[in-house]
Amino acid sequence: MQTPKLFTLHFSLLILLVVVGAFMAVLDTTVVDIIVPRLKGPLSTDMYGVQWVITAYMIAAAVGLLIVEWLIKKFGNKWIYIISVAVFTIASFLCGIANSLSFIIVARVIQGFAEAMIMVTAQAMLFGFFPPEKRGIAMGIFALGVAFAPAIGPTLGGYLTEWFSWRAVFFVNVPIGIVLVIFGSLLLPDRDERKEEKLNFISVAFLTVATVALLILLSKGQQYGWFNSPFIVYLGFITFFGTLFFIMSEYYSKESLFDYTLFKNPYYSLGILIYFVLLGFSMYQYFYLIPMFYEHIKGLSSIQTGLGVLGFGIWIGVFSMIAGALSDKFSPVPVLIVGAIIYLISSFLLFPSINYYTPFWEAVLKTMPFGIAMGLFFAPITVLVMNNSNGKIEQGIMTMDYVRFIGGSFGTAIATNNLVFYSNKEFDGMVSLQNYHITYDFVSALENFLGKAGVEIFRMLEEFMSANYGFKYVWLDAGFWGLVGSLFVFMLLLVKRRKNVS
């Protein structure tokens, strides 16, 4: 396979066509979060109903990842990418014209499935455009594009919703998608060899059932009271038996869904574990918590929240490029070590000090090291996994993205549960410290002056302050999972020493 000359006009256009598609797909996962509360009226539903707009997308994307490698081998990266962008664009238009909850959920399912295809094919094509010694830069460019999507998502979503309509959040994808399909069909190279391989439909079916049940369990657990609800218990059983039958199918089948021989390589195994725990369980918590902190604790608007997120998102993009170049020059391992150290400092020293009383500019400054650490993480870990995937690039990307979805769902569920738990704990602690007689007299005076509204204001103030103080422990819990994930990063040093000795 002949590699094109780097950074000519034609080569730059190829990069742009691929990165913009991935950017559009990732942007839609974050920009929609802003409009969810505004969908209740137009779609005639409640908050729990519109949450399915996000849940359905996430489930479809996770399921799509299970068959994307097989589709790529059959039709090639280019055409799966082009068709997926076209499907994503059509689904975006359908979301924009939706007038019912069921209609937009179906459209989001189609959109999420296409997003999985776009992300894997875009990353695989970009990786293939560059020679082996420059693939760190390739993943740095990819991370640069993808990192800006969640950074500007809240700002863009807030702006479009405030000045136009929530429908504009979906319609904005349509012209971009049309341009990508036309120019991508004409310019993107089709170099992949076609292979007629069998797909283990039984394994796909069992893992699909287990994945769907698990993601619904994690996204709806807090709403239904976790395992106090029969519905959640049933989902737990379905997840368990779906996973069990999947393992049995993989064990006895000649055509397994995953290539388990790759896990014999310690770099590959540790890379997947780092992606699963550090990115999924920890970093996803921060991505979920930071906008929530700005909006619900600091009381900022959607646009201001977006600027706060952009404050660390910029550094993800900048340091992704630096990390990619350093990975090519030296190795991904030392870059990951430095990133892990900065991440732990940010998690245990900076985040716990951020609360309601922290000025906005100070909060932005304290989240910047987090952005730097994330920038030092994406490109090196991707290069580490893909360079050790024995040439099976799509398999490595599929596995990384799948564990990212599952780990991220766990991380979001943990953060949601912790917010409730620590807020309640701080509320109980606050009440236990109050002098009953002084509090009673104060609340009575408020009631005499403002009526029942005075009592309600006092209750809301207590709940707000308990949530504010509880955030400290929520930050720390996310940091704990970062510590667990960082242990796998430091284990890479031991692998390297053993190889050097041998």
UniProtKB/TrEMBL annotation:
PROSITE patterns attached to this UniProt entry: MFS
Membrane spanning residue stretches: 7-27, 47-72, 79-106, 112-130, 137-160, 166-187, 199-219, 231-247, 267-287, 307-326, 333-358, 370-390, 402-422, 473-495
Cellular component annotations (GO), alphabetically ordered: plasma membrane
Domain Major facilitator superfamily (MFS) profile residue range list: 14-497
Membrane-topology annotation of the record: Multi-pass membrane protein
Ribonucleoprotein keyword on record: no
Key words of the record: Cell membrane, Membrane, Transmembrane, Transmembrane helix, Transport
GO function term, MF aspect, one: transmembrane transporter activity
A Pfam family the protein falls into: MFS_1
Gene3D superfamilies: MFS general substrate transporter like domains (1.20.1250.20), Multidrug resistance protein D (1.20.1720.10)
Protein name: Major facilitator family transporter
Organism: Nautilia profundicola (strain ATCC BAA-1463 / DSM 18972 / AmH)
